What we know:
The structure holds two protein chains of two kinds. By secondary structure, chain A is α+β, with helices and mostly antiparallel strands. Chain A contains eleven helices and twelve strands.
Amino acid sequence: MKPFAYHQPxxxxxxxxxxxSIEDSKLVAGGMTLIPTIKQRLASPVALVDLxxxxxxxxxxxxxxxITIGAMxxxxxxxxxxxxxxxxxxxxxxxxxxxxxxxxxxxxIGGSVANNDPAADYPAGVLGLGATIVSSTRDIAADKFFxxxxxxxxxxxxxxxxxxxxxxxxxxxxxxxAPASRYALVGVFVAKFADGVRVAxxxxxxxxxxxPPMEVALSENFDPSAIAAIxxxxxxxxSDIHAEADYRAHLVTVMAKxxxxxxxx
Amino acid sequence: xxxxxxxxxxxxxxxxxxxxTGRGNYVSDIKRPGMTAGVFVRSPHGxxxxxxxxxxxxxxxxxxxxxxxxxDVAADKLGSLPxxxxxxxxxxxxxxxxxxxxxxxxxxxxxxxxxxxxIAETPGQANAAAELLTVDYEVLPSVVGVLxxxxxxxxxxxxxxxxxxxxxxxxxxKAAVETAFRKAAHVAKLSLVNNRLIGNPIEPRAAIAEYxxxxxxxxxxxxxQFPHVVRFLMGALVLNIPQHKLRVVAPDVGGGFGVKQFxxxxxxVITWAAKRVMRPIKWVASRSExxxxxxxxxxxxxxxxxxxxxxxxxxxxxVNTLANMGGYLSTFxxxxxxxxxGPLLGxxxxxPAIYCNVKVVFTNTVPVDAYRGAGRPEATFVLERIxxxxxxxxxxxxxxIRRRNMIPKEAxxxxxPVLVQYDSGDPxxxxxxxxxxxxxxxxxxxxxxxxxxxKFRGLGYSTYVEACGLAPSRFxxxxxxxxxxxxxxxxxxxxxxxxxxxxxxxxxxQGHETTFAQIVSEKLGVSFENVDIVFGDTDRVQFGMxxxxxxxxxxxxxxxxxxxxxxxxxxxxxxxHLLEAAEVDIQFEAxxxxxxxxxxxxxxxxxxxxAYVPHNYxxxxxxxxxxxxxxxxxxxxxxxxxxxxxxxxxxxxxxTVTLVNYTAVDDVGTVIxxxxxxxxxxxxxxxxVGQALFENAVYDEGSGQLLSGSLMDYCMPRxxxxxxxxxxxxxxxxxxxxxxxxxxxxVGTIGSPAAVINAVVDALAHLGVTHVDMPATPNRIWRLLQxxxxxxxxx
Lengths: 265, 795
Ligand SMILES: Cc1cc2nc3c(=O)[nH]c(=O)nc-3n(C[C@H](O)[C@H](O)[C@H](O)COP(=O)(O)OP(=O)(O)OC[C@H]3O[C@@H](n4cnc5c(N)ncnc54)[C@H](O)[C@@H]3O)c2cc1C
């Protein structure tokens, strides 16, 4: 780890100003991703801007048709939230499957979504539910937010303040854990709304993506059997020492079926 | 007589008091006055010519004290890291033994090979300077797999090691085996890979070195399983430090599993550097650094053939193995896939003819050496797998074929055709016990229940034996050992009757402080809490070969037992004098010396007091004091073994294997502390399950990069992978160790991989699957099912 300056601003605009005025500065939320990278000297920011004093970024609110989760809300809080468990049980379940207890107590939804790890769980929930990423400057639709491997629509100095989730009729998440890391080797989030179904896949490729043929089939018949025969193309999927692309493609179908099962149960 | 806690009791472990209250003393806890920080610069390439190193920027970096490279090592004329075993081929030609410089010279041969050592005031400064070191590499193609390494045209690691073959080793009667194969009614064949493993002790390796100019003495604190051996190898063979000027301390060590039983270059570099900079230096490896520098384990590619008669009797066994040595020979490296492998191929069976050829091969990978089980899990896996293959091909039940070939209890001692002679055992008894404990009778019911959920259930057996208690020195010497393999213990009775034991083994999780204290408590009748065990410091302990190969109780415990006997013998002499009786009439029982048939008695404490205050004492014939020492060299290996039964459930949709039941009935000889033995079995089994289902060290062919270089990519077994295990012992007593003990440190790891894989194959047998390589990952199982064209599971 190289030495760095540390700031703990009390207001969002102050945080944004620090980020734009100090070159090579970085936001730190739960630090579960950022701190290990700094320790391994893979990242060496000159300054860290800690979001933990920004109280307005924490907590979960019920807006009726939507649920808003503050960016600094840890995974464990989402997993244990009565509100989330009642309104979007699939999302509470997703949060409970992230990492281990220590990671869930420190890691935040804002950090996870901003980081956009190709194997992270939240991106599947955010894209699958068609959520809105609320930042210090604007609202960004999930469909426009995730731009592939660790890339997002966030600009320099832009801070995620909350994620706004529309409440679906039904939703479910199924995760096949990578054996060692227990990130998603393949994770599929399925959400049924009055106007159709959304299916989002994480872990299988370089970034989270939707599966239109499954969405069509499930919109007609929200049952695992409706998608059992839908195979996704291996092309563009990840092959690594844990899983080859065709196996990941196969798992997308299996996990999608199980996600529908979870949504129905 | 106080609180005797003896053989067969399960007191809580003495050492856990300090571990559970955070009071352990590990190398990285130690701080020395004026201590500096050292960092190793390691090769990022698998294979490269080292054209030059520019130190100037690193030396100019803040806080830097020195930067040392292979050129400095060469200038100081230091020795190569020694290999403790010299094996030979069938014609007696010694193995190729290229030098292993402690800092690379001329070439680097694996990712992680050390090229420089940077010493600075703080770890941060040392790391920063290390990044500024300019190393000019001419990158060469790497070869990482054994099959690739022996192919014509493969990259050559050493100019004088053609085809990268270190030694073409063999064992057994080749001609007899060929004759038997010609007469066979059936020949079973199997090709398999024994996957490469990384040990992952919870405490990374670390070292501190200090030089005292006033006494011209060096002290090395190191995470080692055998400090005396490090003192010998490093002092005598690498750094030319006289033994009396070198102290090696291995304090509390957080797990070893073999990874810490080698003399590492880091130890030599830091000790040498401490004198050059005249300051203490500390180095602590990061986990990532451990992945590319801790010695790896296993890594075999094997072809095996078993010849059988028409009744399924084994006639002959032939095994050809290519074993990966990595980039250099580590301390025990060439011994593991040869002497600890071939002699175990007889297993618990009466196979009359066995031949084994092992080509020991250099590759651009971390050196490979002993890892828990070391050679014996590999042998067990080949044998127990091919027995199942043969059974299935011949239509004989897997238990039945084992029974038909098992060495009956009455046949012990049993001479195998591959050197070793088993002194005792009862494999059939272990098998029978395990069949009951595993409720094999009702397996069909459980299998049907799984099938109704769309899952495939399988049962796997492994009836195995291993050789441990390393080792009878004379025998080992004939096999190529360059040192002795005895153990030593000193029993120091204090004037007040408490006891301190100095023993040459090293406790790094095994519970020796408890087990050894129980032996002393039982034998001397002293309170358990009045016995302390000292180990891990060459200045405090007379000598020792350390802990590995399940030898501590078998060899160290035997030395302790003998030293204790000497204390009793001397005590009897003192008692005879004090009680005015003949020595032959003195009995020692329950902590008291008495004259047989009388009520004249002296307590152990009184005798100890008299030994140190010899006013009324036979000084003419007996020295005062009560302290005895024994060295013990075993007459044979010990042969623990048993029967493991694994039960798995396979999800055909995802290929996931779940271990649902595990039963082990092991013969470990006399059990001193059942709780500790159970813990050793549990841990060993989990490590074997790790190899079978999860762990795999993967290198990239060509670049030599380690792709499984962290815990995010190298899958260790976790608590939630394991069912509750049923472990039990079915012991026969070892005939040649003083207490009948056989050792239990490695049995779990040796027996389990075959049991698990046999269970996986059984679960998939109806689809025509005959073998699954380790680890049986979901992807691998799914691929097998694809190839077996499984009908799509209905849902
Ligand atoms: C052992 C382990 C296991 C894990 N397992 C999983 C798993 O199974 N599934 C999974 O999904 N994740 C997993 N994670 C990742 C974990 O969920 C992280 O918490 C998460 O990815 C990042 O959240 P954080 O709050 O820790 O962010 P940090 O590490 O603090 O930051 C991550 C990145 O996001 C940026 N950032 C943080 N907050 C904001 C914000 N509000 N606005 C804009 N940018 C921001 C930071 O600048 C940084 O670049 C695991 C992590 C560990 C250490």
